[in-house]
């Protein structure tokens, strides 16, 4: 009945109804051309979601091509549910990051929760058991009740979903900045482990095979989620609330266990998550990858609500659903497994030779579209790009000079910045230990997970300082990759590969497209230098509120391999008497630094430079020293500079530090890249100095709980009891959240 | 010793528990037993793992308590067999009435995952024989509903009969008497919120949980193996 | 069919941290007249009408829906108005 209420193909054309669902005029014309007729309502719906930025990457494809995506250790690059990297012994690691920014902005708990659910499915649909979750979050300052609400609910959503499914949330990062006030970012990453023999792909191969639906029934939730994710937010966004899906982690857990069992069955041909754009994208993409067609009878789709139209069923983003292609005649094998996990299954279609997506409903054909038109023929835009005026302006500014003179006070101020402050309030809410593999818990440079039954471990970290990228996208892009790699190195691992989530404003704005071009170019260059290919990722554009774009925020999720468990290294100092070395000279480049933000309330000028060759050489030196057993603790110098890094090395220990240095504010707080704080046992000092000639001895770890930094002439720069540092650093976020203002 | 680890839909510490038993005790077999099993009579010790059985919808453990396997678990418990519930397993034992009291949400309404100090109050049970009374253990907690509640009379009874086996050294979740683990009157059923199965290796931060499992094993050996 | 509405609340005297949190929040928003908040659960059951409806519903509450150690329940039966 509701079918008759839908507009006809003629009406869609005449009244430009396609525009309401995000299809542009020229795109509509192209669709008519590809189909040889005007699309009906269901058909235009299919195009609207598959041709959305979220599914088609129509504005970002040329940029994504720059990224290196192959290497001998890469088993699967971008294009499948997640990237796959060889870690030896017949095992592989499977990982991907995905954004859930828009849904989280309108309904933070469910938005974040379903973001976690979606990324888990991307990983276990490959046949891999998820072993870790991470997330990268961006919020506005915690000074308004609304932002505190968003922050608390996003964290609760991640916790509620991940904890229940039983996958540890082991790390991630959070930054706070005005730029995210109207448009917070929620990027979730999942890592899975698999025996290479068990790898699955999302393909609909084998004409005559059965298309099977597994998991939760379909409701009207999330219709047009992919299109919603490709639009900017405005005052009306709250009205789009029905677009937000509700997650059911209990069903997810059962779908997970069932899929991992199904993956071992020869009956399975292909499997894919019904993620963004639901049944539409999974069916079209699986057929496209296999060069086949799919015919589905929508009457057979399990439905949670009554009176659903084909349009609604195809575009629903109900969660916890998978689409399987199963060898004909072996459906029962799959059904038996799913029944064991109390999951609904339905054979809803067949793989065809005709390379068309054909949908029937109540006996009528309601859509008949060439698969390639939906996937391969999606437009790719060559977008104009233009260097924004303020970029030159920042480059030409005189070097910014900090005003700070009371260094004790400055250090305490920096430690209480939410971006630097301790995040225990957050990760205490995440079960980071379930599965009992977490060797290094959240709060270190990188999380480390042992691989049971081997001597190996995985190190993983998420990074992306958007302030640098806002001022200088290319240099900032390099820094994002370098910092992720440095964090992996500090934990004792060799960086292997990465996944990225590219969060930007509207690509249709030439200055924003320029940011995208420049930052991805910088990232690509860094990836090549470190031999860390991009194996998966996600693009989130139109992160704007009322015309104001966020800082360009590419987020990097990197995975590295620890060859031997005894290489695992953490940042806290270990014992009094150890020698403290600093690798790398500080330089007075303050653009985008935490200190600049504290003093000016905004960022300006030139960012620290990134010498990729030097970075790479140092990383390998540090890793070699760690592997040689010469390193007690390692920490990179990042936000807040050396003073903050040293403070972080004494936090939570019964130790202090006594160091001396040049009388120079840059030495204390500059964020010059490619630098490390490393502590070394006295007996290894000589060997360490030979291994890393650039390392300079700054002082020693003491058993007095005080951080002392002084000039080489003995003049006090900073002297603070560890407990006071700890108090300020740990108390900052809870203190913001308690504020009622 | 034959050990059963019950897998409810939504259990997620089942494999961790199984590793703890198979890698760190001399248990002869450790089976993951599905919630649909009709009987667990063949096992010497029954372990209810942590997780979110049935999504913890309604109340933690409320639905799992009616899972088919539970009839047999209850019957075996009543006959004196060793039954240990950890975290969600403890919640299920409370709902099943094998242990007194109930769980509420943590006092600050947040899920807490953290390694905490747990004090051994009674080292004279089959679950804690290898600990010393008064000893402090480092054991992780990971729960949103671990705020143990019971009425004053129940609390007095628990105390008087030495049924409080573990307490938290600090008030982490609001539990009555900072209770972390209790036994039934007969002493063969223990429920505890902290996760000893996560404290088996120094590599992961603590091995203070090991002796709980070895205590159970030793108790079984002492009562079942005839020395020659 | 009748609709049975079941309300589950914490027993008097059992600390209700959710209620406290909601009350504090209301106070912060200026609703100082709110003196106490209790947070509970509401369940709607669609049940075939029958002779021993009340005793069946009470059993459901005692056996599964509420935990008598800490919770109370009340319910009411909604019958469609006969036209």
Automatic annotation (TrEMBL), chain A:
<dbReference type="GO" id="GO:0005524">
    <property type="term" value="F:ATP binding"/>
</dbReference>
<dbReference type="GO" id="GO:0005737">
    <property type="term" value="C:cytoplasm"/>
</dbReference>
<feature type="domain" description="PurM-like C-terminal">
    <location>
        <begin position="207"/>
        <end position="360"/>
    </location>
</feature>
<dbReference type="InterPro" id="IPR010074">
    <property type="entry name" value="PRibForGlyAmidine_synth_PurL"/>
</dbReference>
<dbReference type="InterPro" id="IPR036921">
    <property type="entry name" value="PurM-like_N_sf"/>
</dbReference>
<dbReference type="InterPro" id="IPR041609">
    <property type="entry name" value="PurL_linker"/>
</dbReference>
<keyword id="KW-0460">Magnesium</keyword>
<keyword id="KW-0479">Metal-binding</keyword>
<feature type="binding site">
    <location>
        <position position="96"/>
    </location>
    <ligand>
        <name>ATP</name>
    </ligand>
</feature>
<keyword id="KW-0547">Nucleotide-binding</keyword>
<dbReference type="InterPro" id="IPR010918">
    <property type="entry name" value="PurM-like_C_dom"/>
</dbReference>
<feature type="domain" description="PurM-like N-terminal">
    <location>
        <begin position="443"/>
        <end position="562"/>
    </location>
</feature>
<feature type="binding site">
    <location>
        <position position="245"/>
    </location>
    <ligand>
        <name>substrate</name>
    </ligand>
</feature>
<comment type="similarity">
    <text>Belongs to the FGAMS family.</text>
</comment>
<protein>
    <recommendedName>
        <fullName>Phosphoribosylformylglycinamidine synthase subunit PurL</fullName>
        <ecNumber>6.3.5.3</ecNumber>
    </recommendedName>
</protein>
From TrEMBL, chain B:
<keyword id="KW-0436">Ligase</keyword>
<dbReference type="Pfam" id="PF13507">
    <property type="entry name" value="GATase_5"/>
</dbReference>
<feature type="active site" description="Nucleophile">
    <location>
        <position position="87"/>
    </location>
</feature>
<dbReference type="GO" id="GO:0006189">
    <property type="term" value="P:'de novo' IMP biosynthetic process"/>
</dbReference>
<dbReference type="GO" id="GO:0004359">
    <property type="term" value="F:glutaminase activity"/>
</dbReference>
<feature type="active site">
    <location>
        <position position="195"/>
    </location>
</feature>
<keyword id="KW-0547">Nucleotide-binding</keyword>
<dbReference type="InterPro" id="IPR010075">
    <property type="entry name" value="PRibForGlyAmidine_synth_PurQ"/>
</dbReference>
<keyword id="KW-0658">Purine biosynthesis</keyword>
<protein>
    <recommendedName>
        <fullName>Phosphoribosylformylglycinamidine synthase subunit PurQ</fullName>
        <ecNumber>6.3.5.3</ecNumber>
        <ecNumber>3.5.1.2</ecNumber>
    </recommendedName>
</protein>
<keyword id="KW-0315">Glutamine amidotransferase</keyword>
<comment type="function">
    <text>Part of the phosphoribosylformylglycinamidine synthase complex involved in the purines biosynthetic pathway. Catalyzes the ATP-dependent conversion of formylglycinamide ribonucleotide (FGAR) and glutamine to yield formylglycinamidine ribonucleotide (FGAM) and glutamate. The FGAM synthase complex is composed of three subunits. PurQ produces an ammonia molecule by converting glutamine to glutamate. PurL transfers the ammonia molecule to FGAR to form FGAM in an ATP-dependent manner.</text>
</comment>
<dbReference type="InterPro" id="IPR029062">
    <property type="entry name" value="Class_I_gatase-like"/>
</dbReference>
<keyword id="KW-0963">Cytoplasm</keyword>
<dbReference type="GO" id="GO:0004642">
    <property type="term" value="F:phosphoribosylformylglycinamidine synthase activity"/>
</dbReference>
From TrEMBL, chain C:
<dbReference type="GO" id="GO:0005737">
    <property type="term" value="C:cytoplasm"/>
</dbReference>
<dbReference type="GO" id="GO:0005524">
    <property type="term" value="F:ATP binding"/>
</dbReference>
<dbReference type="InterPro" id="IPR003850">
    <property type="entry name" value="PurS"/>
</dbReference>
<comment type="function">
    <text>Part of the phosphoribosylformylglycinamidine synthase complex involved in the purines biosynthetic pathway. Catalyzes the ATP-dependent conversion of formylglycinamide ribonucleotide (FGAR) and glutamine to yield formylglycinamidine ribonucleotide (FGAM) and glutamate. The FGAM synthase complex is composed of three subunits. PurQ produces an ammonia molecule by converting glutamine to glutamate. PurL transfers the ammonia molecule to FGAR to form FGAM in an ATP-dependent manner.</text>
</comment>
<keyword id="KW-0436">Ligase</keyword>
<comment type="pathway">
    <text>Purine metabolism; IMP biosynthesis via de novo pathway; 5-amino-1-(5-phospho-D-ribosyl)imidazole from N(2)-formyl-N(1)-(5-phospho-D-ribosyl)glycinamide: step 1/2.</text>
</comment>
<dbReference type="Pfam" id="PF02700">
    <property type="entry name" value="PurS"/>
</dbReference>
<keyword id="KW-0658">Purine biosynthesis</keyword>
<protein>
    <recommendedName>
        <fullName>Phosphoribosylformylglycinamidine synthase subunit PurS</fullName>
        <ecNumber>6.3.5.3</ecNumber>
    </recommendedName>
</protein>
<keyword id="KW-0067">ATP-binding</keyword>
<comment type="subunit">
    <text>Part of the FGAM synthase complex composed of 1 PurL, 1 PurQ and 2 PurS subunits.</text>
</comment>
<dbReference type="InterPro" id="IPR036604">
    <property type="entry name" value="PurS-like_sf"/>
</dbReference>
<keyword id="KW-0963">Cytoplasm</keyword>
<keyword id="KW-0547">Nucleotide-binding</keyword>
<dbReference type="GO" id="GO:0006189">
    <property type="term" value="P:'de novo' IMP biosynthetic process"/>
</dbReference>
């Amino acid at each position: 009945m509701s079918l008759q209420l839908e507009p006809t193909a003629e009406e869609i054309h005449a009244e430009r109804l396609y525009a309401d669902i995000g299809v542009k005029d020229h795109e509509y014309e192209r669709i008519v051309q590809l189909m040889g007729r005007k699309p009906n309502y269901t058909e235009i719906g299919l195009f609207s979601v598959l041709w959305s930025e979220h599914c088609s990457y129509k504005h970002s494809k040329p940029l994504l091509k720059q990224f290196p995506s192959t290497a001998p250790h890469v088993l699967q690059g971008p294009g499948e549910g997640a990237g796959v990297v060889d870690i030896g012994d017949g095992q592989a690691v499977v990982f991907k990051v995905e954004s859930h920014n828009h849904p989280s902005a309108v309904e933070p708990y469910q938005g974040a929760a379903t973001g976690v659910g979606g990324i888990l499915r991307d990983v276990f649909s490959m046949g891999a058991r998820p072993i870790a979750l991470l997330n990268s979050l961006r919020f506005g300052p915690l000074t308004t009740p609304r932002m505190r609400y968003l922050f608390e609910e996003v964290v609760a959503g991640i916790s509620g979903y991940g904890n229940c499914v039983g996958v540890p949330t082991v790390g991630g990062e959070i930054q706070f900045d005005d730029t995210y006030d109207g448009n917070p970012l929620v990027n979730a990453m999942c890592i899975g482990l698999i025996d290479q023999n068990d790898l699955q792909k999302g393909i609909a191969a084998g004409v005559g095979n059965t298309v099977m639906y597994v998991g939760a029934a379909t409701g009207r939730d999330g219709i047009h989620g992919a299109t919603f994710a490709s639009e900017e937010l405005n005052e009306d966004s709250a009205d789009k609330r029905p677009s937000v899906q509700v997650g059911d982690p209990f069903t997810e857990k059962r779908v997970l266990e069932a899929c991992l069992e199904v993956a071992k069955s020869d009956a399975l041909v292909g499997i894919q998550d019904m993620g963004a754009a639901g049944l539409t994208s999974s069916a079209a993409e699986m057929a496209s990858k296999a060069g086949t067609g799919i015919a589905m009878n929508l009457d057979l789709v399990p439905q949670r609500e009554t009176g659903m139209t084909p349009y609604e069923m195809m575009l629903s983003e109900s969660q916890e659903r998978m689409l399987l292609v199963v060898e004909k005649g072996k459906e029962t094998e799959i059904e038996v497994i799913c029944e064991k996990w109390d999951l609904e299954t339905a054979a809803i279609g067949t793989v065809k030779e005709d390379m068309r997506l054909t949908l029937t409903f109540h006996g009528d054909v309601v859509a008949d579209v060439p698969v390639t038109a939906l996937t391969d023929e999606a437009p790719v835009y060559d977008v104009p790009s233009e260097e924004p005026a303020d970029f030159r302006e920042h480059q030409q500014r005189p070097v910014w000079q900090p005003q700070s003179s009371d260094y004790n006070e400055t250090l305490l101020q920096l430690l209480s910045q939410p971006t630097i402050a301790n995040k225990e309030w957050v990760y205490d809410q995440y079960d980071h230990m379930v599965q009992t593999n977490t060797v290094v818990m959240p709060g270190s440079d990188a999380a480390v997970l042992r691989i049971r039954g081997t001597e190996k471990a995985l190190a993983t970290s998420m990074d992306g300082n958007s302030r640098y990228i806002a001022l200088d996208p290319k240099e900032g892009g390099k820094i994002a990759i370098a910092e992720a790699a440095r964090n992996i190195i500090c934990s004792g691992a060799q960086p292997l590969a990465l996944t990225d989530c590219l969060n930007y404003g509207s690509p249709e704005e030439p200055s924003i497209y320029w940011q995208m071009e420049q930052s991805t170019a910088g990232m690509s260059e860094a990836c090549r230098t470190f031999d860390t290919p991009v194996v998966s990722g996600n693009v989130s554009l139109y992160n704007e509120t009322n015309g104001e774009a966020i800082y360009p925020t590419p987020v990097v999720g990197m995975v590295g391999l620890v060859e031997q468990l005894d290489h695992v290294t953490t940042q806290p100092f270990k014992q009094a008497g150890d020698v403290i070395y600093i690798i790398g000279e500080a330089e007075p480049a303050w653009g985008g630094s935490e200190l600049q933000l504290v003093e000016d309330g905004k960022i300006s000028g030139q960012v620290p430079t990134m010498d990729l060759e030097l970075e790479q050489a140092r990383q390998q030196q540090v890793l070699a020293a760690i592997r040689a057993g010469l390193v007690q603790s390692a920490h990179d110098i990042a936000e807040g500079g050396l003073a903050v890094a040293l403070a972080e090395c004494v936090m939570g220990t019964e130790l202090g530090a006594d160091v001396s240095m040049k009388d120079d504010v840059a030495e204390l707080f500059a964020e010059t890249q490619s630098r490390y704080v490393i502590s070394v046992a006295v007996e290894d000092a000589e060997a360490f100095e030979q291994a890393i000639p650039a390392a300079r001895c700054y002082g020693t770890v003491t058993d007095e709980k005080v951080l002392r930094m002084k000039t080489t002439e003995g003049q006090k720069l900073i002297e603070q009891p560890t407990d006071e540092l700890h108090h300020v650093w740990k108390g900052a976020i809870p203190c913001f959240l308690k504020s009622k203002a | 010793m034959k050990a059963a680890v019950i897998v409810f839909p939504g259990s997620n510490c089942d494999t961790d528990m199984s590793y703890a038993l198979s890698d760190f005790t001399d248990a002869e077999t450790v089976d993951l037993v599905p919630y649909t099993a009709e009987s667990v009579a063949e096992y010497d010790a029954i372990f209810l793992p942590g997780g979110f059985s049935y999504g913890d919808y309604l109340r933690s453990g409320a639905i799992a308590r009616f899972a088919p396997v539970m009839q047999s678990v209850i019957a075996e418990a009543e006959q004196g067999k060793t039954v240990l519930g950890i975290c969600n397993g403890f919640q299920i034992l409370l709902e099943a009435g094998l242990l007194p009291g109930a769980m509420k949400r943590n006092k600050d309404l947040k899920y807490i995952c953290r390694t905490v100090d747990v004090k051994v109050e009674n080292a004279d049970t089959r679950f804690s024989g290898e600990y010393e009374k008064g000893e402090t253990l480092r054991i992780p907690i990971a729960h949103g509903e671990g705020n143990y509640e019971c009425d004053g009379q129940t609390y007095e009874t628990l105390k008087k009969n030495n049924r409080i086996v573990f307490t938290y050294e600090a008030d982490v979740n609001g539990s009555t008497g900072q209770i972390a683990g209790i036994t039934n009157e007969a002493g063969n059923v223990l429920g505890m919120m902290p996760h000893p199965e996560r404290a088996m290796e120094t590599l992961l931060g603590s091995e203070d949980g090991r002796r709980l499992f070895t205590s159970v094993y030793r108790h079984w050996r002492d009562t079942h193996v005839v020395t020659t | 069919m009748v609709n049975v509405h079941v309300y589950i609340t914490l027993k008097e005297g059992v600390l209700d941290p959710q209620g406290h949190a909601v009350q504090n929040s209301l106070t912060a928003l200026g609703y100082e007249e709110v003196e106490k908040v209790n947070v509970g659960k509401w369940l709607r059951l669609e049940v075939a009408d029958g002779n021993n409806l009340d005793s069946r519903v009470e059993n459901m509450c005692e056996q599964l829906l509420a935990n008598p150690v800490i919770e109370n329940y009340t319910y009411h039966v909604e019958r469609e108005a006969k036209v």
